[in-house]
Amino acid sequence: VTIEAILLVGGAGTRLRPLTVHTPKPMLPVAGVPLVVHQLTRAREAGVDRLVLATSYRPEVFRRELGDGGVVGLEVEYVTEEVPLGTAGALRNVADRLTSAPDDPVWILNGDIISGHDMAAQLLLHQRTGAAVTLHLTEVADPRPFGVVPTDRDGRVSAFLEKTAEPAGNQINAGCYLFRREVLDRIPPGRPVSVERETFPHLLDAGAPVYGYLDDSYWLDLGTPAAFVAGSRDLVLGLAPSPALPGTPGPALVLPGASVAADATVDGGSCVGAGARVDPAAVVDGSVVFPDARIGRGAVVRHSAVGRGAVVGDGTRLDEVVVGDGARIGAGNELLAGLRVWPDAVIGDRAIRFSTDA
Ligand code: GDD
Ligand code: MG
Fold it and tell me: From the centroid of its chain, how far is CA 304?
């Protein structure tokens, strides 16, 4: 039989702007390959053969990079929502592209997750319980930005509480589901529907069997700049597992075609993309340097992301900063603490500092 999956990739990635101005979040380079390539390679290893991408924001980038899916060993199809239909509306909108039978399990993946969980074990639980839906669950320190999902002793889901200020526990929806195919067909068509706010609560109200597969493997949602940088770092260091890592885990991943000066320091799980250049005496620590970017002589880049073709001037210091594609930051600047530089912005030499010393 053909195992099918739907990948939800229609979001605009607002919290990751300006990195997502040109590139949808799931296609941003993470440890040297697009984020979704890590997920899709794992899905293929878990037995998925065929994938439908539910796109909306910048769909052309997915088609251009993933083509017919051959690069990830999957058969890939694309569906585009002209107007975003929400997470469940997107599923309903692609349901008629599936070839699975009504009782077959279909994988649903959020497009911004790095996870090391055992998908085969999740599938076994789904089959053993005969669930309508089986969600991967994980525990996080701060559940407020997620869907909180309490379960009973047998793993049966008792409630679904999306983004609440006072969460009932730390167990959250990890964004990887198995749906019985006919459940997808019953989502109302032709209007926006949220799987988290409408479909899951309705299934629970109707008494449908919804189960949670809880584990404590590596898990991260890469939706914010800090998480994006951390996810890439953890993959490079080997803390997060991925069969798609283009190299061996270690302190740094320097892609073919990148150049790093002999006395520059690149470590802490940094990744330097193809065609990028790190000049002498520069320090790159725990950061993502996109393809064709340039880090100037003596610059210090920590816990930051430097967009495609962007330039960081000599001696400039970045810490927890996001630099958009093609931006040019002059020499001797000091940018810290969550600053976002928009694509193609130009910042002069010694124009911005946090500290007083010049
Ligand atoms: N096709 C389509 N259409 N995709 C969408 C739409 C839409 O209208 N809206 C969002 N998506 C996609 C995004 O591209 C992303 O891959 C995925 O759905 C989840 O959206 P996020 O914006 O990343 O949601 P979140 O992180 O705030 O919350 C979700 O994920 C958490 C786990 O990371 C929820 O499912 C939470 O319950 C969950 O805990
Ligand atoms: Mg997310």
Answer: 16
